[in-house]
Design goal:
Radius of gyration: 15 Å
Strand order of the largest sheet: 2-1-3-4-5-6
CATH architecture: 3-Layer(aba) Sandwich
Structural class: alpha/beta
Helix content: 40-55%
Largest sheet: 6 strands, parallel
Number of domains: 1
Mean pLDDT: 95
CATH topology: Rossmann fold
Number of helices: 10
Strand content: 5-15%
Number of strands: 6
Amino acid sequence: MKLLFLPGFACGSWVWERARPALERRWDCSFADWPPQAESFDSLDLYADWLSRPGADAVVGHSMGGLLALMLESPAVLVDTFLTPPEPFFRNAFAAGTDEKLKRDAAERLRVCIPRFSLSLRERLRSSDFSNLALSHPAPIAAVYGMRENQDESEVLGKLGWPDRLKAKIPVRLVPEAAHFLMLEQPQAFVEALSGALDEVL
């Protein structure tokens, strides 16, 4: 099975690095990096045009990458992708117990990357509703989210703020003790959740 992994805004293929050995043992994986001209990409359409046809059985997208996965019309797994503006509950990069060095390393990589991306696009990603992008997607979709410090799955799912049609369309798997960068925080649990999500879409 061929999978294409897309990073999020101001990120690169490094976001998958801790999970990558386990991912590559299970699947034929390609890990995208955004091109140098991404600084001028002030819309998702420009990213989608650059990606063109993925040639993969499914696309796995983190954050903004999940929105782009929906624009490619392939089976998609959304990884901590927000289809509606996220509640404060979700606006943390890492769960409280995450290793401090891991957090520092990721923060430094983000600091270096952010100037290479459109800040106006970042604001639109934070404030826009992308529900219709998912509802109109012609292929199956599943999703994986970090639970943050909450242990109540139904409460976490409720905080996504999805309308009933989205809830009916997209099965969700949750990873405990992880937040937005769940694949770095809990790589093995993420891979297991992704495996289940792929079973839903393929």
